[in-house]
Amino acid sequence: MTDIPFLKQAASSGIWGRLLMMLGMAVAFYLAVSLLAILALAQLILTLCGDSPNPRLSRFGRMLGTYLRQIAEYETFATDRAPFPFSDWPER
């Protein structure tokens, strides 16, 4: 391929595939944060109209927060386990 050592190492370690995954996960992170903002607003409105937060929205918000953490860990090389859709959706 080339005589540049870091490029040889990157090609042999699959870093280019990881780079593409990281770009995709960055887009997923952006979309999930946008969804979280909408979810927070909906929960606020439902709480103002009712007397307590919606438990299903709270559970989904917790799962969405876990998903965002998983993406952050993958993006920063804290883990090699790719988040959803390459693994299961977080349950908690």
Quick structural summary:
With 92 residues, the protein is mainly alpha-helical. 71% of the residues lie in helices and 0% in strands.
Separation, N- and C-terminal Cα atoms = 45 Å
What characterizes the major β-sheet? none
Strand content: under 5%
- Radius of gyration of CA atoms, rounded to a whole number: 18 Å
Coarse shape: elongated
Q: What structural category characterises the helix and strand content?
A: mainly alpha
Low-confidence runs: none
Question: H/E order of the elements?
Answer: HHH
Topology:
Elements: H1 5-13, H2 15-49, H3 55-75
Walkthrough of the structure:
- The structure is a single chain.
- 71% of the residues lie in helices and 0% in strands.
- The protein has 92 residues and is mainly alpha-helical.
- The mean pLDDT is 87.
Task: Please tag this protein with its features.
92 residues; mainly alpha; 71% helix
